[in-house]
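Notes from the pairing session

We agreed to fold both candidates in a single pass and log them together. This is the raw record for the first candidate, unedited. Please don't reformat it; downstream parsing expects exactly this layout.

Candidate A
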Amino acid sequence: MPGDTTGPQRQPMAPLRSDFAVSFHSEAQIEPLRDATLRLLERTGVRYASPKALALLARAGARVDEASGLVRLSRALVEETLALAPRTFALGARDASCDLAVGSGYTYGTTDGCGVEVVDWRTGERRKSTKADLEAVTRMQDCLGSISFWWPTVSAGDCGETAQLHEIEAGWNNTSKHLMGMVQGESLARHAVEMATAVAGGPEELRRRPLMSDLIGTVSPLVHDKDGIEAGLVFAEAGIPVCYVTMPNLGTTAPATKAGAFVVGAAEIVAAAVLHELAAPGAPVLGSIMQIYADPRTALTMTTPLDDRCRFLATELLHAFGIPALGPMGGTDAADAGSWLAGVETMLQLLQVPLDGCELYTGIGLTNTYNLFIPENLILDDDLYNRARYAFLDIPMDEESLALDVIDAVGPGGHFLAQPHTRAHMRHAVVRAVSQQIAADGQHYRDPVEVARERALDILCNYRPEPLPEAQQTELRRIVDGADREAHA
């Protein structure tokens, strides 16, 4: 718990789940996508821009063209290798009560990631994000129950080439939840492993209960760049889970059909997971397929056009390969917090999460197509998250809940206010959202955006997370300073 008990207190983590069994696609419906992915990997192949990756794949029997970096993976090699990947595993946290049980049936959420602008909560100025901004936003993440693990919500834009390490340092110093960094490149990955080892208390403890994972992007279509894939190899060796993510853009970096874009994205993730398991058999690996859209009139990226059907198919397709999924749920193209568009786009996606079956999901907290952080927007998204969370929980139907004796005692035309049953249950009958704050006159609700801004400022100014032990803070600072010197040598 936070060390300071006078300010806002951290909410218990509240992961998503559904009490209702739902299967959107049958195995027969998923099979054409799975089969097409395997055919694509065998016929067209994927380019790996890494000699280390090419050597590893060649030893495993893949068809490797060293001159072009193109690798073709047989169906048998893919299926045999992916069988080594664990379907369930734990993502540890500094606070063990915040550990995440991947594959348990719960879906653990985080924010959107790597926004580049903020609206300063002190001045109202819109500006580029800094490491200090990330530290403050991380404290908000630590406080909110909707956030189960950390992403760098905004970039440490003032930290240069080693920004990814500065972001991790900001994470560990301001939250005791699990960290999923976004570190690319072999050198930075080795520094990140050193940092994670220092916090975990040693390499074996880190391997047993990894306090960090990493998100690594592909390059659509069908490319794994050197920095990304070699960082993945470093993390695999250390036992740090990696989530490989692809963002195929319909009509530009992927076919203009959703099915074709899913096949390209799945091929990239499967190819990364195969290499990951060849490097370290049994190493935890996840995947994420985040289809995006380019407006054909402007080329501007869109999060949720009118036809955004089957977003949950990304999870179903990855599960068909035995890969746990990070679902692409959340986000808005709206520029302002509290706008109609922000609420509609975010809520439509959040309502799919409990039924999706993904193990992790992103994201809430950013506007303007994942670019801008506005403090009150995270609070409003937290409100939407909890509305979605309650929407898929079943109601009790025991005798106490059915209340036949109470109904019989009141009878037709009576009222229930004086009943002991009412006093026992009324407090939980209506759970008011943060945004539903009653105005001073007691006659209406206040403006939700105004309430959310007050709540955000209270957390930013007064919430204090459990600090990282001073010796570990010092060690992280030493590692990051060393990486900075290397970068400028």
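Candidate B (folded immediately after A)
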Amino acid sequence: MRTIQSPDAASAVSADRLRLAVVGAGPAGLTLALLAAQLCPKAHITVFDARPLERDVAGDPRTLALGLGSVHLLQRLQAWDASVAQAILSVSVSQTPALLRHPWFGASQQPEVRLSAAEQGLDQLGAVLSYGQLVAPLQARWQARVALEPARLSSRFGAPVQGLKAQGDGVEVDAGIAEQFDLAVVAEGGVFAEQARKAVQHDYQQNAWVGTLTLAADSPLGAAYERFTRHGPVAVLPLAPKAGERRAALVWCVPQAEDDVAGMTDAQRLTVLQSLLPDSVGRLQAISPLKCFALGLNAERSLMDGRIARIGNAAQTLHPVAGQGLNLGLRDAYALVDALRAGGPIDAALRRVEWQRGPDRWSMIATTDFLARTFAWQWPGLPIARGLALAALQAATPLKKALARQMMFGRR
């Protein structure tokens, strides 16, 4: 096996001489590569991915929810196609009334937190689109940058990375040929069921069934819903209309021990979902075939392991209850590139990123983990306490605004 040596492996190498490997050409990896190409104009950057370049990713239907901060970042990179994204204009978080059997709650009362772009003085809170609709423009933008600057930017599609190894003051990346880099960023995470277990882990024993709903023509446009049920959360995220039909992405979480979704007909699934969701969603007209994913927490204690950094799902795979997994990954990417462009030794920059990302990262990990675990708890009065918390948050305008800002931009 031939080894290509770095021209400068000094421990104090800085961003203007950086040799950077990005492992994974998904949303987080391509965003980081484009940011580094833009903000570190002398850095040499190579993107590795097992997927062949000719494989079309545009049709990948997996749904992604992005906060407004993520949308702004992608717009800055000129990798955002607003024509295929559906703006999130409002968010409703509520609990099924059947869980609130207490005199404090009348028969018609439904504790709910309602967030809207109008309340925040914004055009949108975020956006929803498919994985393919996000990755295809990112990949096209990256390939265009590579074509413009082939001396310092390169792509290794169809080249799965078989190993990463600390080597002196850098990292050896083995993708058939072992190459030396100053820093390797791992951005390919996969799904919980397929991952090697990390330092912080928990299997929620839940499945997420995901697919697409067709809504009635009078359903509100741009409205997102999260409903806490006895079994787990159900999320409905607005999608751009197609052929004149209102559509929404569905994330339906159920305990594995009580999961009978696979045995239901489409009509039965629609009936159950209609009973779980608030009336404001509107009438459910149709449902697509559903895919099932096991849910769990799988997180590294640290983003950094020497000169190997991990971002996105490679650093933390979360329960989808808050819809923040990719947003965290994009904030990881921005913080890392921002620290590198500031100059100085790489190791000092990596330490700054670790400290900077800690509060945002761990607060989101703790929040989603707590919410996911509560659906397995059978404590008396827990639904009442959750309902009271929702009602109190709706009444506390400053706290509600702070929550909206955190969901859009992360903890600052």
